[in-house]
Amino acid sequence: MEAPKRLLEYILTPSTEVFIVGAIIVLLLPILVHLYISRSTPYTSLPSILLLGPAGGGKTSLLTLLERGDQATPTHTSQIPQSIELTVSDDHGASTFREAARDDAPGSHRKFLLVDTPGHGKLRNQHAMTQIASSTLKGIVYVLDAATLDEYLADAATYLYDVLLTLQKRTGAGKTSKTPNAIHVLVAVNKLDLFTALPATLVKSNLEAELGRIRQSRSKGLLDSGVGVDEIGSEEQDGWLGEYGSEKFSFRQMLEFDIELDVVGGSVLEGNVDKWWDWISARI
Ligand SMILES: Nc1nc2c(ncn2[C@@H]2O[C@H](COP(=O)(O)OP(=O)(O)OP(=O)(O)O)[C@@H](O)[C@H]2O)c(=O)[nH]1
Ligand SMILES: [Mg+2]
């Protein structure tokens, strides 16, 4: 009983030692709490790259290839988003994703999150589209299966239309205040190892044509009916992708909204994804 009482007395008596110890605790505590919190949630501030695209395009295969740095492993339909942490190195040109996967690669390193999403139609809105709102998002890789695109062109283009329209609205809404950081889109034309696969240039023109058809049909033919551009409500304009009232859609129209689009071919199966990796590196 005697010892605690004396300790209490010592602490409560004003003295230099007690004051210094007290000051150290008061100053260090917020720093320690901050360190503890930022360590337990390491992903909050990392830049992120989002993998989008219809089911079966190869998003999860690409993710596992980049994660392991060698061979893609068999995957199955994704149900929920998953993310992994990857590192790009500044040593541009010489570095590939294989070297970057090693910790001892030369150059300075920057970490980022690669986020895989389910491509199935019913899971898209719930899981994939919500990720676009993330403030750390630096770029979107839209992965397509070039071998079956002929069959699934309408679905692939509809999904892409929704993604681009969301990005367009995001830029449009920011016009008055500070413009949000530009989010660029890479259309990754995958499975070029298959002989039935369409080349990237053809995929690009097919997508542009289909996106044009979609915006035409969504505008409910108002433009054809002779109603002037000025008379059409802003609601109508909101659903229109690219330059309003233009006849043909092209990816270049998205530059107006700070959205750069690249269409680049590759193959996860053959490990031919270096150009996609370079594109990602440039965004981080
Ligand atoms: N031939 C070939 N097949 C590939 C390639 N990349 C992926 N695949 C195969 O395509 C199938 C679908 O790949 P996933 O990565 O699961 O596709 P996903 O985009 O994640 O699909 P969801 O999760 O359903 O949205 C798998 O059987 C892969 O092995 C490629 O470059 N060439
Ligand atoms: Mg998947």
Query: What is the count of distinct domains?
Result: 2
Task: Estimate what percentage of residues fall within beta strands.
Answer: 5-15%
Cα separation of the termini = 62 Å
Strand-pairing-aware structural class: alpha/beta
Going by CATH, the homologous superfamily of the largest domain would be P-loop containing nucleotide triphosphate hydrolases
Q: Estimate the mean pLDDT confidence.
A: 83
Q: What's the CATH architecture of the largest domain? A: 3-Layer(aba) Sandwich
**Spatial order of the strands forming the largest sheet:** 2-3-1-4-5-6
Tell me, briefly, the overall form: elongated
CATH fold assignment of the largest domain: Rossmann fold
User: How would you name the oligomeric state of the polypeptide chains in this document?
Assistant: single chain
Small-molecule binders here are: guanosine-5'-triphosphate, magnesium ion
Please sum up the structure shown:
With 284 residues, the protein is an alpha/beta fold. It is 41% helix and 15% strand.
Model description:
It is a single chain. With 284 residues, the chain is α/β, with parallel strands linked by helices. The chain folds into 2 domains: 2-40, no CATH class; 48-283, 3-Layer(aba) Sandwich (Rossmann fold), CATH 3.40.50. The chain is 41% helix and 15% strand. It is built from 9 helices and 6 strands. It has helices at 2-12, 16-40, 59-68, 97-100, 121-128, 149-173, 200-218, 234-238, 274-283; strands at residues 48-52, 82-89, 109-116, 137-145, 184-190, 261-265. A 6-stranded mixed beta sheet has the order 2-3-1-4-5-6, with helices on both faces. Helix 6 links the parallel strand 4 (137-145) and strand 5 (184-190). Helix 6 packs across helix 7 (200-218). It is elongated, with a radius of gyration of 26 Å. The relative contact order is 0.14. This is P-loop containing nucleoside triphosphate hydrolase protein. It comes from Hypoxylon rubiginosum. Keywords: Hydrolase.
